[in-house]
Design a protein that fits this description.
By secondary structure, the chain is α+β, with helices and mostly antiparallel strands. It has one domain. It contains four helices and nine strands, in the order βααββαβββαβββ. The protein has a five-stranded antiparallel beta sheet with strand order 1-9-7-8-4. The longest helix is centred in the middle third of the chain and has 23 residues.
Length: 175
């Protein structure tokens, strides 16, 4: 099962108000993101992480607020490092155009759709939330298990006024 939510800024960028939403990257998922997926995920104690993660999961949440915060910090990566977009630097600050922010959101959504297979492939699959955010200087993908009483993001996604946010909940068939 899949649930997709987004703030108004993301919906507008992706074309929902105009009735022309497109949720797939024009040329399919970027090859470097496919490589990232091939690295896989694993359960380490109470947390999920990338298989090649160097995060010290045995002490999670350690300095993090909770397990969700630990997973988000450990799993986060910049989409612009994997997707060919024009990220210029002006006065030492990256600048990503609206068009390229849309491209990064599309790749993040496509990545989450394929990431679902990794979640379902775990020995004991649990619901996982993927959070994709894009703004004028970066775009990120992160994930965490869905836990009662823990949240990484504000539930009112429109409170993020300078960022386009997409939240995708991936729930195994038996949950």
């Amino acid at each position: 099962m899949l649930s997709l939510m987004m703030n108004d800024a993301a919906a507008e960028t992706l074309g929902f108000p105009a009735g022309r939403p497109t949720l797939a990257p024009p040329d399919g998922l970027a090859p470097r993101l496919r490589v990232r997926l091939s690295e896989g995920i694993t359960r380490r104690g109470e947390v999920l992480s990338w298989t090649r993660s160097t995060g010290y999961a045995n002490s999670a949440p350690s300095v993090a607020r909770d397990l969700t915060d630990w997973e988000c910090a450990d799993s986060s990566f910049h989409l612009e490092d994997y997707v060919p977009v024009d990220a210029r630097t002006v006065d030492d600050v990256p600048q990503i155009s609206e068009h390229d922010q849309r491209i990064l959101l599309l790749h993040g959504i496509a990545f989450a759709m394929e990431f679902r297979q990794l979640v379902n492939g775990l020995d004991a699959p649990e619901p996982v939330r993927c959070i994709i955010g894009a703004n004028e200087s970066s775009a990120t993908f992160r994930f965490h298990q869905i836990r009662r009483g823990e949240s990484w993001h504000d539930t009112d996604l429109d409170r993020y006024q300078t960022e386009k946010i997409v939240v995708i909940d991936l729930k195994p068939a038996d949950n």
